[in-house]
């Protein structure tokens, strides 16, 4: 037992003939810390019912039509019930259709006992709401103002590392020109950011959710569109970018954003909306200069570089740098958050295979340490540790 006080919930489980509903009811009965007053019913019986329930779970079939009509009816008659659709798959179209019918949440088969428990806990704590969360989660933007500094490798593996800490993480790829975040994770989806933009006139949380795909790690991804011959990139405006990011952050605890490597309207909108900006550079003169110029215009946009921007030095090799860390400190008011080791072999192997960095590689360990509480990877050379503390303004 988890130590929670026992909670009571009234639950209605619905399936076409009631048999699948009985299986859901049995799974609910095995959850800890809850006592359920559960009723099972078929579609036809449910359409005649007017009773109130705290939670209603509707099991759909491959032909969604009849089940969607049940959801629509329940939504009209019982507005206070938390309505969950359970469909045979996690197809984005199914998700969109169930939410349009009135479902508050969507689960796919095979059903997870853990997912059911999370819903029950939300109900018990009074935090179960429709998909849009007015407060929203945090927004982090990873930006590499000079191409080739490893920003995509960082944002993708940072999302995976954060998800490993049990945070609800989304990854949005705004780079409509060459965004490869989905490729780095071998994710394929029929819907992308382009579909959201094309249908922007009906933008809502359902449309955004329907365009996202879930990586096996649990990270939800809104992919940049692939290259379409004969079609110019459809770049989001600043207004569209802000609206889309507000919806995604309303659905997730933490949203990471990959942007084009230049100050497009979408890039500027994302950066100026961010709770945290991770500015990626290596210790070459062009990259450091581009980083310094970026901080200048961010400050011109009202961003406080000292509190809102953190410099990530990537591909750090103490024996082969053009610019010293002291030079970086003098050129930029933003703190140096960390130095990630030069580990091109691991980065290339992961990118080519479409998978996260292999566990145990130096770069994987550094990024994992970056997201741990108080974690700031330090170079192994002892003589540099105090310098890192000095540049970042942080104690070890």
Written description of the protein model:
The chain has 396 residues and is an alpha/beta fold. The protein folds into two domains: 7-125, 3-Layer(aba) Sandwich (Rossmann fold), CATH 3.40.50.2300; 138-392, 3-Layer(aba) Sandwich (Rossmann fold). 41% of the residues lie in helices and 18% in strands. The chain has an eight-stranded mixed beta sheet, with helices on both faces. Strand 4, helix 4 (92-101) and strand 5 (105-108) form a beta-alpha-beta unit. Helix 4 packs antiparallel against helix 9, helix 6 crosses helix 16 (362-371) and helix 10 packs across helix 11 (265-273).
Residue ranges: pLDDT <50 for 5 or more in a row? 130-135, 375-396
Cα distance, first to last residue? 38 Å
- CATH topology of the largest domain, which one? Rossmann fold
CATH class of the largest domain: Alpha Beta
Count the domains: 2
Q: How would you sum up the global shape?
A: elongated
Biggest sheet details: 8 strands, mixed
Task: Find the count of extended strands (DSSP E, 2+ residues).
Answer: 13
- Give the neighbour order of strands across the main sheet: 8-9-7-10-6-11-12-13
Instruction: Please tell me the CATH architecture of the largest domain by its name.
Output: 3-Layer(aba) Sandwich
Give the amount of beta strand, in percent: 15-25%
- Residue share in helices? 40-55%
Number of helices: 17
